[in-house]
Amino acid sequence: MRFNLDPHGSWLVDPRDLAARLGVSVSYLKRQMSLGLISSRVDPGRDDDEGRSRVTIRAVAAAWEGAFDRDGILLSERRI
């Protein structure tokens, strides 16, 4: 899994990757997104985690958290 930046500096992720991480289908994820039921949060790393980001995604029935390096490469992950 990888996060990429769009031209405006926003993070993008492939919905297939995200759906698999959450344990839901892509169609379910897209439907929940269109209804505004998916929340996301990106927290920049500090101190020992400088240059990394923690990304948290919450859906109605699942949540996932991943740590990414400055190039958008997934370093670690867990379902929460």
Automatic annotation (TrEMBL):
It comes from Methylobacterium durans. InterPro entries: DUF6522 (IPR045389). It holds the Pfam family DUF6522. This is Uncharacterized protein.
